[in-house]
Write a structure and sequence with these properties.
The protein is an alpha+beta fold and 154 residues long. It has 2 domains: 44 residues; 88 residues, Sufe protein. Chain: A, CATH 3.90.1010. It has 4 helices and 3 strands, in the order αβββααα. It has a 3-stranded antiparallel sheet with strand order 1-2-3, covered by helices on one side. β2 and β3 form a beta hairpin. The chain is elongated, with a radius of gyration of 26 Å. The N and C termini lie far apart (94 Å).
Length: 154
């Protein structure tokens, strides 16, 4: 009888382990479905492979360098916009640490792309960006818009 008891105990352990793993699997499936449902609501916004920020800028500024901060995790990065009386002269991220560039690899290429377009058109209207960097570009555009609103001459 004692050998039979050991077999039952081993099978009971297997049943307990199986129940624990099945419970974890159900929890992971529920979590996956929750995340998938949250993504569907995020993707309800139109995405045409690129987006257009529809904010027109004024053409007269108070000359200077204006900044707006972006919080990335526990670090802060400033978006600096330099303007003269009639045009945007440069847009940059300050300070862009190596750790920030490593943790957020899309931030510098997105900023370069946006800065090039904004300086060329002197407006935030008609700015396009790749769908893969949509959220990064939107955060950067919002910061650029805040900085330019400080520079606008009333």
């Amino acid at each position: 009888m004692s050998s039979r008891t050991k077999i039952v105990v081993l099978r009971m352990k297997e049943i307990i382990y199986t129940a624990i793993f099945a419970g974890l699997a159900l929890l992971l499936i529920a979590l996956f479905l929750f995340m998938l449902r949250a993504r569907k609501s995020d993707s309800a916004a139109p995405d045409s492979g690129g987006a257009v920020h529809e904010q027109s800028l004024q053409t007269s500024y108070i000359p200077g360098v204006y900044s707006a901060s972006i919080s990335l995790g526990n670090q802060t990065v400033n978006v600096e916009v330099a303007v003269n009386a009639s045009e945007i002269t440069s847009i940059s991220l300050v300070p862009l640490d190596e750790s920030i560039a490593t943790m957020y690899p899309l931030i510098q290429p997105s900023m370069d792309n946006l800065a090039e377009q904004i300086i060329a058109s002197q407006s935030l209207e008609g700015i396009t960006y790749e769908s893969g960097s949509r959220y990064t570009s939107q955060v950067l555009l919002n910061a650029i818009e805040r900085a330019l609103s400080k520079a606008a001459a009333d």
